[in-house]
Design brief:
Blueprint lengths: L7 H15 L14 E5 L5 E2 L5 E6 L9 E5 L11 E3 L2 E5 L6 E10 L6 E10 L18 H32 L6 H33 L9 E2 L1 H6 L1 H25 L4 H21 L8 H30 L5 H37 L5 H4 L1 H32 L8 H22 L6
Parallel strand pairs: 2-8, 8-9
Antiparallel strand pairs: 1-3, 3-6, 4-7, 5-6, 7-8
Helix pairs in contact: 1-5, 2-3, 2-6, 2-7, 2-8, 2-11, 3-5, 3-7, 5-6, 6-7, 7-8, 7-11, 8-10, 10-11
Length: 442
Amino acid sequence: MTKKACPRPVLRALLIAGLALTSPLLLAPSAGAHAVLVGATPNWGAQVAATPGAITLRFSEEVVPRFARVAVLTARGENLALAPGVSGNIVSVPLRNGAAGSYTVRWQMVASDDGHVTQGAYSFGVRAKPLAPAPASGLAVPLAPELLAWVQFLGVVLAGGTLTFRALVSAPAARMLHDRSEREATVAVGVAVVGAVLALHAGLFGFLVGAYPIVGGGLPNLVNTQIIPIRVATHLGQAWTLMTFAWLGVLALLVGAWVTPRRREPLLAGAGVLSLGTAFGISWASHPAARGTLPLVADYVHLLAGALWVGGLVALAILAGVGRRASESAREALLRECLLRFSTVAVPAVVVLALAGAYVALRELPGPAALLSTGFGIMLLVKTTVFTGALGLGGYHRRTIAPRLAAGHPVASLRGTLAMELSLLLVALGLAAILSQLAPPT
């Protein structure tokens, strides 16, 4: 009796899922023998009553004494550290006396076992709240953070917006019209997988790019940087941790939807909702999070509404593309029903998008003059102009095209303006990514 072979689609799904889940791990070398900082006195985030006479760093491995480098910097950049003393995996650093304030500890060690260089930074406070480590001077990473932010936004759109649109619009329309086409669902899964993988990797690189200037050191040592204090004590690190686990969960749901067709729709809907949830990490790591709870919530809602709007247009494009194999009457009926349903869903999404965006912008700007006198304000104006163009096209579709479709006009008459609306929104998405990396005016 022979064993039944595993179906090829299942094998492909498992292979792609394995690559997607493990490929970020390939970027980090084995840290089994690296000198990892496991404890410090004062520890990261600690607040002490007086400048300590020395700090103590404890590592997971013994370090080479002559290569030990430690700096303890004041807010003005003055180094209070004297020559470090090394005993096995313990490094003691005497300090000169200093004033109250936040202190940044920067260290670089070479492990005795394998010779790998590791480095890191953390902060503690002397009669003051410790601040996040300031960026090391003269450092830059040759990778645009704006591009990484845009890719993360795009991932939320492709996975969250597209799949949620399917759950709210196209899947109910297909059931109503008894459309049993599997190709559209297969393409939607593929698009969502691409979005999740792109966002997962962009988040990883974005975190490293954000952490690297803080810890300093040479670019070849970027991956070996000890960034645990930054990961657990800053919004950047907390957001990255949250989003990483969320995207891994999205990929797991997508694999489940691929290999279990009977449960495909609820799994895809769950993946869509979870993908939209990752947008909270983007807001958590952005400027509005520092303004309070209400600006943070407004920024998150703004991202959700934008993802639903753009994702809906992407889903319609997928539906139009894969529907070419169906009969003309069936394709027209399905697209017409989806467009009419989408116009109903898009209206509240656009209203929320506009209101939340206006509120966040007003909270970030100190006054109307900042719109023309600061880079942040000018970029906000450009983004608003592009968004207004897309909004005008959306209003045209709602007030003019939707009644024509309901009256039986062909769907093909809408393709040109829909493509233009999608293009404008993708441009606005890119401008939003740039805006998220600019410091608001003070």
